[in-house]
Amino acid sequence: MSFQIASWQQIDTALLDMDGTLLDLAFDNYFWREVVPRSVARARGESVASAHARIEALYASKEGSLDWYCLDYWSAQFSLDMVALKHASSQRIRYLPGARDFLAAAVASGRRLVLVTNAHRRTLEVKRAVAGLDSYLDSFVSSHDFGLPKEHPDFWPALQAALDFDPRRTAFIDDSLPVLAAARDFGIRQLWAITAPDTRAAPRDIRDFPAIRGVSELL
Questions:
Q1: What is the pLDDT of residues 149-186, one digit of tens each?
Q2: How many Å is the Cα radius of gyration of the chain?
Q3: What letter does residue 188 receive in the DSSP assignment?
Q4: Which fold does the domain 6-24+94-218 belong to in CATH?
């Protein structure tokens, strides 16, 4: 397989999100909305419904911040070993449809492939091992390495300094619109938004960015 989109020929570096771009966001939604509330309810002797309502409010208060993605933060908040819970549920980690074909074609094309995720390093390591991401990616970056989420405008200059990429010859693919907006403002030339990051949910209607159902559409 090879890339069919002409603009891809002008790209040297592809920055790829992990959850909702390469891997099915269904796992993360299941983990945070089902596994965590059940575990908190069990530990505190409360109903799942009560725990779920309280936890969703906590999530909302941290959305878009680095804490929202931080296993250490949520482990402390809930007095739970979040890494152990991730491992216990890791059999549900899956690639999105066509993602491995896309990665194989990207590797064969000779372009530099960098995974850039907001996920905590320990989450990244779990998924990296289960999904075999090392077979495809040249390097891995967690926003926690910089102390800033990808939504923050200062993340992108820090990432460029670390990776030495030319924004004019770089592609970035993500399912988060605030993250894509930050990348666009920094000057990343080619951006694509994923409309179907979770195979259990309906595709989204995205108008602000070039949109694809999944990365396989770039083949």
A1: 999 999 999 999 999 999 999 999 999 999 999 999 99
A2: 17
A3: -
A4: Rossmann fold (3.40.50)
Give residue limits of the domains in the chain: 6-24+94-218, 27-91
Give the 3-state secondary structure of residue 165: coil
The CA distance from 34 to 96, in Å, is 20
Greatest alpha-carbon pair distance for the chain in Å reads 57
Provide φ and ψ at 198, rounded to 5°. Answer: -125, 115
Burial 94-103 (b: 16+ CB within 10 A, else e): ebbebbbebb
Over the stretch 93-107, which tens digit does the pLDDT of each residue have?
A: 999 999 999 999 999
H or E element that contains 9? none
Q: Which amino acid is present at 100?
A: R
Strand partners, 139: 114
Query: What angle, 0 to 180 degrees and rounded to 10, lies between the N-to-C axes of helices 82-89 and 121-131?
Result: 20
> What DSSP line would sit under 190-206, residue for residue?
EEEEES---TTSPPP--
- Answer whether 171's CB lies under 8 Å from 182's CB: no
Do 188 and 206 touch, CB atoms closer than 8 A?
no
Question: Strand pairing partners for 172?
Answer: 15, 191
Please give the structure tokens belonging to residue 29.
């939604």
- Is the model's pTM score more than 0.85? yes
Please give the average per-residue pLDDT across 39-44, as a whole number.
94
| Dist. CA 203–CA 198, nearest whole Å | 8
